[in-house]
Task: structure prediction
Amino acid sequence: MQPTLLSTMTVRAPSPGLQTAERIGAVVFVTILTAVAAQVSVPLPFTPVPFTFQPMVVLVGAAALGARLGAASQLLYLALGIAGLPVFATSPVLAPGAARLLGPTGGYLMSYPFAAFVAGTLAERGFDRRYLTAVVAMACGLAVIFAGGIFWLAAFVQARGLGAALTEGFYPFIAADFVKLLLAAAVMPSLWWLARTR
Result:
């Protein structure tokens, strides 16, 4: 196991209590970033699933925090949404609050903690320190998000099966998400470079 970016930065804290406070603050910060990214939402006419920047925030945040704290940040995000806070993507067709998890985007949302755990685990093994391995770590996390979303669409939301789920929940997004992934993968090696220069 290698230290995450967060653990590297907080190890300089003068007391364990301050270290803990910094880690809690980092988890809350990633939760807030996820909620903000949800508001940058573009509805598409041919699918109930909107285009958002959330998956990239989930993956970059998890790489910085590590597996457990990354997953915790997404569990907190879901808890805030279930409680009725306006953290989910605004949509005229998707239900607000807890009912959002039962709708067509529920599988994507519920997969965020698992995707964060996967990306964070790979970051704890040093995958986030070089660009190509960061791409691999984030691609694994993104695969978890797509798998959860497509499975949910196919099994619980639509009676038309896997083909329709892929048409509405995968094909329209994969190219754009891959480009976003390539850009997001550059974030962590850059942050590590800055941390080393300091």
Summary: The chain has a mean pLDDT of 90. The domain at 5-197 is CATH 1.10.1760.20 (Arp2/3 complex 21 kDa subunit ARPC3). The longest helix spans residues 131-157. The chain has nine helices and no strands.
